[in-house]
Amino acid sequence: EEIGFLDETSKDERTLGRSAGRSLKGICAMKKQVFIHGHRLSALGLLTVDGMMAVSVIEGSFMTVKFKTFIEEDVVTTLMHPISSVLVMDNAKIHHGDGVADLIREAG
Fold this sequence. Notes:
Number of domains: 1
Strand order of the largest sheet: 3-2-1-4
Domain Tc1-like transposase DDE: 4-106
Radius of gyration: 17 Å
CATH topology: Nucleotidyltransferase, domain 5
Number of helices: 2
CATH class: Alpha Beta
Organism: Rhizopogon vinicolor AM-OR11-026
Protein name: Tc1-like transposase DDE domain-containing protein
Largest sheet: 4 strands, mixed
Mean pLDDT: 83
GO molecular function: nucleic acid binding
Low-confidence stretches: none
Number of strands: 4
C-alpha cells in the first residue's frame, strides 16, 4: 500500500506582487526581486513517504491533457502497488478534467 500526494504550483512575474507578506516580529517583510520576468513556469510533483518520486516542470500552465500525461507516464508507473494505493489531490480544476478520474480508476 502506498499514499501519494499530487500538487502543482506556478511562478511568473506576478508571484511576488503581493500587497501583504510575513516576516519575523519587528522586521518588515521585503521583496527584493521578481522570480522571473515574462515567462510562467509550472511544476507538478508526486510526493510519497519515500520522497519526491515524480516531477514535471513546464513553461506555461498545466492543462488537462498535460496533467493526464503526467498521471499516465509518471504517477501510475511510479506507485509500486497502484491497486492498493491512495492518491491525494486538492480541488484544482484540472483534477476534475475529462477522463482524469477514469484514468486513475483504471490504474487501480
